[in-house]
Amino acid sequence: MALDHAQRSRSAKKAMGVAVVATLALVLAANNSTALNAQSVSISQPDSRISVAVGRGKLITLPSPIEDIFIAENSIADVQVRSPRQIYIFGKKGGQTSFYATSATGKVIYSAEVAVGAEISSIDQMLSLAMPEANIAVSTTNNFVLLTGTIANPDDAEEAESLVQAFVGDATRVVSRLKTATPMQVNLKVRFAEVSRSLAKEINGNLLTRDTTGGFQFGVARGRNFGSITDFNTSAFPNLDASQLFGLPAGSISLPFNPSTGQFVTPGGTAFNYNQGNSGLNTIQAAGRLFGLDIATAFDVSERVGLVSTLASPNLTTISGETATFLAGGEFPIPMSTGLGEVSVQYKNFGVSLSYTPTVLSNGRISIRVAPEVSEISSNGAVILNGFSIPAVSTRRAETTVELGSGESFMIAGLMQNSYNSAIDKTPGLADVPILGSLFKSDGYRRNETELMIVVTPYLVKPVNDSEIVLPTDGFKAANDAERFLMNRNHSGAGGDRPKPSMAPATPATQSFGSLEAPVPAKSAKKSKKSGGTAPGFSFDK
After folding, report:
1. Cβ atoms of residues 224 and 281 within 8 Å
2. Residue 130: enclosing H or E segment and its boundaries?
3. Per residue in 359-392, pLDDT tens?
4. What per-residue confidence (pLDDT) applies to 399?
5. How far apart are the C-alpha atoms of 156 and 150, rounded to whole Å?
6. H runs (alpha helix) in 41-153
7. Three-class SS string for 438-474?
8. With 276 labelled, which of 22, 59, 193, 306 sits at a CA distance of 20 to 30 A?
């Protein structure tokens, strides 16, 4: 038993030693493989840096011929190979990328980090970066730079001149002859749209009484002087014998006789006299005798419905930065006292007026300082001074600054007004009596509704040929005597076209006037009349 145990112990130690030796062999083999791999892999980094401007390039001469090239992002920079030892690198857009050139054996001949940026190396490049929408040409001579071309707005001219002056320095003179590409003439269309409705009702009670009793006298009077109550006048009637009417002997009684009715009239009757047309209102009248009193009444009834609609659309054209005014109306005099016993006269405008100052901005939009106004002479609020009646003026006015594009509209002012006014004039106590109380009061009310809108629309405009302008008087021809008397016409149908300036054509393609030549208009005047939709005389650039 002891021997077997010893043998098993020696066998286990021997197996353990073999396992250790095998493990060491595997470790050494792995280390040798890692060392071999580390020796076979080589990572190369770019060893130089190149800066290239957008749209510019650089020539690189290599020390030995190359077989292959690589660039990481060809949208930033690109390469052209002209010979095995010369390459061109040029920038396309801003950014960074990597470039490698290798030989036939795979050796890196040249590597670089390429940075593409906006490097300014000329006046043209600087202006194209600062003003990409402008078309500016630069001409240089000795200590002199001339700028020509077109710009978007007048402010760009001063900016371009300042940039070039800073680039070339104070020793070089900069002269700008830049023109504005955007039209600088602005046409403003303003629309006043107003509707005014009014309703007024009045019921006025008028009362007059007369007491003919011999005792205590009583009377009531109210309202306007619509009439009077008097004794019946019989002085114009003849006196005839009326004895037989009463069965008396002839010659006993004589009474006035009314020939129109064929009746005798008793003296002392009552006459109701009405003043017709004094009130200017519709009148309902009644008269009679009640409770021993002679009573005359009149009701003045009135209802007035009014509707006023106003649509004014003035148009005015001016140059950017200039103020233009427009007035379609008139002037009325206002007497003014000078303080020395003398009276002077001043005039005040009324009608449709417009004042505005446009400024064309760099993005083609238009900033407008506009002040439209519609005024009319009104008797409401008139003043009498030293015997002169000075009328009042009803005015709708707005003044503001807005920014719009060409052809865009904007409502700069609006008014919605409703007013209601009711008034009752009455005799205290008596006016509260049912039915009969209407004789002792006057009831009236007024209601007014007004809606107003002011809309402005600016346009950038260019001049057009005179033959394309359509006037309101085109096609009008006055009627002759026969047409006026026999056919009741005030115009003679469609008249001919108005006289227009013309130039004799020098060639089939041009027109000449002296030493000037202009292209023949492509459309005739008749064709231009069909192209409605815009105001005559303007071509609108939206």
Report:
1. no
2. helix 123-130
3. 888 677 899 999 988 888 887 778 887 677 788 8
4. 92
5. 10
6. 123-130
7. HHHEEEEEEEEEEEEEEEEEEEEEECCCHHHCCCCCC
8. 306
pLDDT score for 431: 80
Degrees (nearest 5) of the Cα angle 221, 222, 224?
Answer: 115
| pLDDT at res. 457 | 92
CB 461 within 8 A of CB 366: no
Q: What is the pLDDT of residue 19?
A: 52
**How many angstroms separate the CA atoms of 199 and 420, rounded?**
9
In three-state secondary structure terms, 481 is helix
Query: Are the CB atoms for 56 and 90 separated by under 8 Å?
Result: yes
Q: Which residue has the tokens 């490097």?
A: 119
**Burial per residue of 318-328, b for 16 or more beta-carbon CB atoms within 10 angstroms, e otherwise:** bebeeebebee
93: left (phi over 0), alpha (psi -120 to 50) or beta: beta
Both tokens of 200, joined, read 């007024």
Cβ distance 127 to 138 under 8 Å? yes
CA atoms within 13 A on the CB side of 178: 25
Q: Which residues of the chain have pLDDT under 50?
A: 1-7, 9, 18, 20-21, 35-38, 509-542
On whether the CB atoms of residues 394 and 388 are closer than 8 A, the answer is no
Give pLDDT, residue 535.
Answer: 42
Instruction: Say how far residue 517 (Cα) sits from the centre of its chain.
Output: 39
Q: Look up residue 397 and give its two tokens.
A: 């006015």
508-525 exposure pattern, b = at least 16 Cβ within 10 A, e = fewer? eeebeeeeeeeeeeeeeb
Tell me how far apart the alpha carbons of residues 533 and 310 are, in angstroms, rounded to a whole number.
22
Judge whether 79 and 116 are in contact, CB under 8 Å.
Answer: no
CA 507/CA 489 separation, integer angstroms: 45
E-strand spans in 342-429? Answer: 343-360, 366-385, 388-397, 400-404, 410-426
